[in-house]
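LOG
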Amino acid sequence: MISSEYQILKHEAGVRPSSKDRRPIVGPHPLHSNMHVFNGLGTKGVMLAPYFANNFVLFYLQKQPLNPEINIKRFYNLFKSEE
């Protein structure tokens, strides 16, 4: 048994957002054209974020295509148009 003068008063857990296919989700929202998504980086988010952020910036500012493995369009079939 470990003895210590410290007492744990509170414990919190963080959630690492991840997608079903464990790939990041990046790109324009399917229903709201003025909103973009950059999420789902999961447990490797700290390592992946710079690479995918650069991909997103090039997409947004220079109209270069997003990497298809992270493009939110792979989930567009889950959204139904509000029209």
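LOG (cont.) second protein
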Amino acid sequence: MNVQEFGKLAGVTVRALHHYDRLGLLRPQRTDAGYRVYSTRDLERLEQIVALKFLGIPLKQIKGMLDLNGLELPDALRMQRTVLEQKRKLLDRAILAIREAEQSIGPGRRADSALLTKIIEVIEMQNDSSWSEKYYSPEARAKIDERRKEWTPELQAQVSKQWTELFADVEAALGEDPESEKAQALAVRWKALVAGFTGGDPEIGEGLNKLYADKANWPAPAKEQMAPFGNPKVWEYMSRVMKCGG
């Protein structure tokens, strides 16, 4: 297919296709005369480009992801569906709250403050749950969403308790030699709790490292939630302990 035929088939403008070509995102074959020629394989890549763009990922980052990951179409579609389903749940909650408020407000009446508060809470809930997504690749986000299905409130309470106890134990051991048996035992507990979240997946681990490296730019609610774990001496000490443990 030439560029006009391909654009019509895909519902994308010729201008957009030219732009993707210039960025190296979607490079079709060329005829001897230099005209672009598109195939079904190009349509598969275009689908991934459009889907990732819809998820809010910059085009330059999309290129790196597609070139690096090389996901087969079924895996890419599965990942996209998981992320979009999670976003849809959040949007559905916001829409429902707004609809309920809309239906309860009669002509000439002011909105009940409780209804408006509910809308704000639902939308802020969406913002709070999505602020950290930028640190993870779409593949990692999809895996995290899958793991959330098993993350019960009881498990969350248990893990929070374990982190609180571990942090207190590390603070009490700041004077210990990082190579000591006691310090390395703390490292084992620390790694186990991190692995409980990442599942040992390197992509999730990479995103988690990026997230904690950017603590200064976290939203206020996240900073408040992490305040009990904000002692920089603990983080510095555990970094040295981890290095000693190899």
